[in-house]
Amino acid sequence: PYIIFLYAGLLPWGLFQGSLATATQSLVDNAPLIRKVAFPREVIPYSVILAKIVDFCVSAVIFIVMMVIFRVPFAPTSIYLIPLFITQLFLTTGIALMLSAANLFYRDIQYLANLLLMLWMYMTPVVYPLSLVPSKYVWLYKLNPMVGIIEGYRSALFQYPFEWAIIYWSMGVALITFCVGFYLFKKSEKVFADIA
Description:
The chain is an all-alpha fold and 196 residues long. It has helices at 2-29, 31-36, 43-69, 81-105, 109-122, 138-141, 145-158, 164-188, 192-195. α1 packs parallel to α4 (81-105) and α4 runs antiparallel to α7 (145-158). The chain is globular, with a radius of gyration of 18 Å.
């Protein structure tokens, strides 16, 4: 059923978008704490993402109930949801670290981030299948790391054929994004208290 197909895309996207939207403002919102207390500043975006994961788990329970109601069988390939979730977590955290630090220096970043996230959603097969993308643009479309993650979730849940190339691409991009995000965050962390 389309509602199950839709929910399978909206659930991980909601975690991704919600985490980034909130994490972008997290350092600015906790500026008094940053100025007064010495602690690893990355804890703040991490805590935001952790809170969104709790929301994700509650929504996942509702999704499971919906699958039971619509009699959608649970595929043995669902075990692949774990590495896909970890991949999404690395990608989300890397981007969150970059955006939260950038927003502390340039406060308009939060508005730009919200706009880009909305556009990003339309460039990801969340509400429509990948098959609707014109074939000549598919290769470009698949460079979006969230395409591999969302398609991977659906393949794992519904036993669609896995497209391993885009999943591995997403994993590589996620790992690089996390490393770059962490490095940039730690590099700029020493001046957070001065500009918060």
